[in-house]
Amino acid sequence: MRAVQPRERGLARRERWPLYAAGLLAETGFILALTAIAFLMAVVAKAVF
Amino acid sequence: MLLRPRLEDHLVIGKYTGKIIIGVGLLMVVPLLTSVVLAEWDTVLDFVISVAACLIFGFGTQLLCRTERDLSWSHGMVVASGSWIVATVLGALPHWLSGHEGSYLDAMFDVMSGYTTTGLYLLQDLDHISYGLNMWRHLLTYAGGQGIVVVALTFLFKGAAGAYTAYVGEGKDERLLPNVIQTARAIWLVSLTWLVVGAAALTITGMVLGQEPLRAVLHGLWVFMGAWSTGGFAPQSYNTLYYHSLGYELVTIVIMIAGSFNFALHWAVWTGNRKELVKNVEMISFAVTLSLTVLIATFALAKAGVYPDAMTLFRKAFYQLASGHTTTGFSTLYSRAFVTQWGPIGLMATTIAMAVGASACSTGGGIKGIRVGVISKALLQDIRRAVSPERAVITAKIHHIKDVVLGDGVVRSAMFITIAYLSLYGLTAIVGTLYGYDFLQSAFEGVSAASNTGLSCGVTSPSMPAVMKVLYILAMWLGRLEFMSVFALGGHLLSMVRGRG
Questions:
Q1: CB–CB contact A28 B193 (8 Å)
Q2: A35 touches chain B (CB under 8 A)
């Protein structure tokens, strides 16, 4: 009889979390880069006007 | 030829609608428990009545609509759109019983606004409502952001093959994983992980700002829900302006932009495909349109001399534009400041950002970046075709998780939905103008409702005409479900009257 190991198939199993965390950090980095560009726009706009 | 639905069709639709309403009733247990813990006994009673109403409806339909048939494609569409209306009618009970709403219509407006992650509200004296009702408002928007059907899929449907049709009907047509139930669970995994991280970041920021621990935790949780679901509800009437904090603004910017990403993109990035962030057509479209609208607003505001320094200009311009583009609706401005300080160019840039909106298969609304990307690519393809030799074969591709050849069907579908959104935006703007509001302001508010954003320039208020309240409710619903399932519901109702038996 085959042993059923539902935990093995789960999306939340432990070894997946470093990859998930790296993904979350990459998303945060991408958003902060967009934010930094907007800040630069404000600096340039204030310098122009 | 329209065929009149048979009894069996009504039974299937009733059964699955009932299941979703049971889900809504179970969701109400969270604010009920919040009120019990915080000894808000009047609110406890409101929620006991509301939970009972949902469960009576839900289990009543299970008893009345006993059938073994699974959902067909058309059933799923009707369930997806119809259940949002029933969930709005019943979900409005706690709002109405609280005494903070002028009428049941106002209560339904607020609940539809919550489910659809819009964020406009007619609730009065927001700063003094109970913790329980505040929990319900934010939970509505958090669950609505994932999709009510996704909530039900995750916990109640248990492997029904036809459940996929209801999932598609709710405007989420991508499978992250081969199985639709697994897809729903992957969506929850991403959302709950962000909930833990985001709510913790906001709680810590709140405590640094001097909030008491309980208040910091609740505000952190609720503001997270408002940001992640791109809903825009906040616990205070001044919205996020209440916090007067750069830190709070930066954290909410990260959460609301992340919330506007396609769940398929999240899943790709979270499973190792991090280049997708800069290759995906939706991300490119979002970065371009956000940068352009921020550029326009920033320079217009700088020229008008509205803000004294670059930091204030950045904080005000980027926050409102990011909020508008992600269709969140958080604001660090007083509503009327859009009119009195930002002027027509600022108002127009924000309206365009809201109209374009977030990513498909996200918590956000609007036309969606993928459609803007597809239409832009198709336009470029046509230009290349026009200037190329007659026998040249011109093909275009878009990258969304994988490379996809741009076929006529994809472009036609994107154009159809885009035209439907533009028509809805136009209709809300015209009706507002007919009721005496300035055209630009009624366009801003109408686009805000139909794109599920929730930014307001002051048009939305309890004293607005009832016709506009009903129109905005319908616009929020149509905008959130992306038309098709609502059209299917319309077709179903028509076939009941005009169909052949």
A1: no
A2: yes
